[in-house]
Amino acid sequence: MFSFMNPGAESGPTTWTVSELTAYIRELFELDYRLQEVEVSGEISNFTRAASGHLYFTLKDGAAQIKCVMWRSQAERLRFRPAEGDAVLARGRISVYDAGGVYQLYAERLMPAGRGDLALAFERLKEQLAGEGLFDPETKQPIPTFPRKIGIVTSSGAAALRDILTVLQRRNPLVAVLIAPTLVQGDLAPPQIVRALRWLDDRDDIDTIIIARGGGSIEDLWAFNDERVARAVFAARHPIISGVGHETDFTITDFVADLRAPTPSAAAELAAPDLSNIRPYIQQTSRALADGLANAIAQRRETLRARLRLLWLLSPRRTVDADRQQIDALTDRMARAAQRLLDRRAGRLAVAQAGLTAVSPLGTLARGFAIVRDGDGHLIRSVTQARPGEAITIQVSDGVLGGRIDGQGRASG
């Protein structure tokens, strides 16, 4: 036992260390037998199952709350699976957790006592929206594989935003990000979330929208169970990924969204591909495309060759070429035959010309004879035809001479 007064001190309170004071308070709890076996009713909030198997949660009602822990040995004997929003009866003892400086209920038994008000409201809205078709798989939009810009609806100072940005920067730094900051908790959060979502959805440069916040109790996440938010998500023309809470948390927004992610970080992973994983695929695809293109070109080239060969066989060009050559040969033969004919005719003509020349007056003239004509151009064959004083022409071999018949019947020039 610890005493409040230091007997050796004259006045003033005793100075305690934090450990001493906490141990004293714990002892006070443990000495009160009424607190060593209590049964508390309330609604489960902030429920967590640790990797060790221990359960950590809060029991609350409309005015207060108390932290609770149930060790794995007791948790393994439970006949139901506790969940956020469950109304339960917890039996155990009250003591102090020294390291945290808080008193808490160490539960040994846990029994369901119905659903809490928030859980009932969640189920009613879930059933209503499901009946209206807001959860139907047919209404879900596919998430773009290679987004250019991602919109994010969350609190500007939240750890969830830092987690999303870190994941996007690591996986795909080429993706642009546009943040629409909003409250994510409290009565003012739903209209702000709707406003932020609609602002992003009205833009044409957005490919995917992430709605996110970190984990918390059902009260902390209640803004994402609001009907206004659910209907805004359903009406959005851009695909939406919901990354609200932890893996065990479910909200109405998760059901309405096109894709539900267990955490904000997981939402970022689903929104953008990892470039390190895509690069080998791109290289492999590029090689496959190059090989396929080369094969296609080779096949087309061979097909073209075959068709050219067939075209050559069916083409009239060979016949035309042969006929053209034959025409050239016939033309040459005709030219030679014509030349030979002309040569023969020329020889015969020369012989005939020589014969004609021999009997021609011109030949006679060439031998020294002359042709005399009267003024009318008639040949004078005899002197009896010449009249004195008549003009005459004398044709010799190289020209014509003029003259006149004198009175004695002789020609004078």
Automatic annotation (TrEMBL):
Gene Ontology terms describing biological process: DNA catabolic process
Which residue ranges does the record assign to the OB-fold nucleic acid binding domain?
16-110
Q: Which locations, inside or outside the cell, does it occupy?
A: Cytoplasm
Primary location recorded for the protein, binned into one broad class: cytoplasm
Example GO molecular function: exodeoxyribonuclease VII activity
Q: Where are the transmembrane segments?
A: none
| Keywords attached to this entry | Cytoplasm, Exonuclease, Hydrolase, Nuclease
What are the annotated GO cellular component locations? cytoplasm; exodeoxyribonuclease VII complex
Q: How does it assemble?
A: Heterooligomer composed of large and small subunits.
Q: Which PANTHER family match?
A: EXODEOXYRIBONUCLEASE 7 LARGE SUBUNIT
Q: Which family does it belong to?
A: Belongs to the XseA family.
The protein, known as: Exodeoxyribonuclease 7 large subunit
Q: Which organism is it from?
A: Candidatus Promineifilum breve
